User: Which sequence fits this backbone?
């Protein structure tokens, strides 16, 4: 336990030092960083509240803005599938909370990894954790236009068995009320959701290990370079933030997903 305390203090010192260096905006970067965030982001990852804990990814971006003397403007996006179009239309500069996939890489550029990602099937007690063979015959909740939906498609879940929901809250409500038998989601989102609903149970992993990252327009090379430099320089602080915002069970699940 003492080692985690030391790590947390060291991380806090790094972020404080980063804030102290803030001054005039770094040349080549936008004076205001407009951050596109899905409205259903869990507060442990990105909080829309001005008071209290900002969440893991928001805290990272706030530190980045302090380092480069930027203002940060949060753009709340109601539908997840609008994030990339809004970025490409110039309505924001960075997307937070997005999985790096080959299809998305054809449209946007990703920063280095923030957290590992992997999809899994999730059920709710008393239903048992779903396995692959069982999953194909269940009603499976997905969010259209997301990597969650694509993971279900790649796993072989038939079109007729996939039930679409507008956001994370709705798909989890559908699972709780029995409208669907299982859902497919990213492991970090599952770990955070389980903190609020301990009856959720993890089933089979789907697909390969991926990465959660920030996304920017491909042409914004200076912004991407600055983000990657910042992420590389604050790895220790990021580890401290992971322990602050994620549970021990979540960390164990992340480690298992990498195997």
Assistant:
């Amino acid at each position: 336990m003492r080692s985690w305390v030391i790590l947390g203090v060291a991380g806090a010192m790094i972020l404080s030092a980063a804030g102290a260096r803030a001054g005039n905006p770094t040349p080549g970067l936008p004076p205001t960083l407009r951050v596109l965030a899905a409205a259903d982001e869990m507060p442990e990852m990105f909080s829309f509240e001005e008071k209290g804990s900002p969440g893991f990814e928001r805290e990272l971006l706030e530190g980045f803005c302090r380092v480069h003397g930027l203002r940060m403007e949060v753009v709340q996006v109601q539908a997840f599938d609008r994030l990339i179009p809004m970025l490409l239309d110039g309505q924001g500069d960075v997307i937070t909370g997005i999985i790096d996939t080959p299809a998305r890489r054809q449209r946007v550029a990703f920063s280095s990894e923030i957290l590992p990602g992997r999809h899994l099937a999730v059920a709710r007690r008393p239903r048992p954790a779903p396995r692959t063979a069982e999953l194909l015959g269940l009603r499976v909740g997905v969010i259209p236009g997301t990597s969650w939906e694509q993971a279900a498609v790649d796993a072989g879940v038939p079109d007729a068995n996939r039930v679409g929901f507008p956001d994370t809250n709705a798909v989890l409500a559908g699972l709780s009320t029995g409208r669907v038998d299982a859902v497919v989601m990213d492991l970090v989102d599952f770990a955070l959701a389980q903190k609020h609903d301990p009856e959720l149970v993890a089933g089979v992993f789907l697909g390969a290990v991926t990465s959660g990252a920030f996304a920017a327009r491909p042409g914004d090379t200076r912004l991407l370079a600055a983000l990657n430099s910042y992420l590389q320089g604050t790895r220790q602080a990021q580890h401290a933030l992971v322990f602050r915002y994620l549970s021990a069970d979540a960390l164990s699940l992340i480690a298992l997903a990498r195997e």
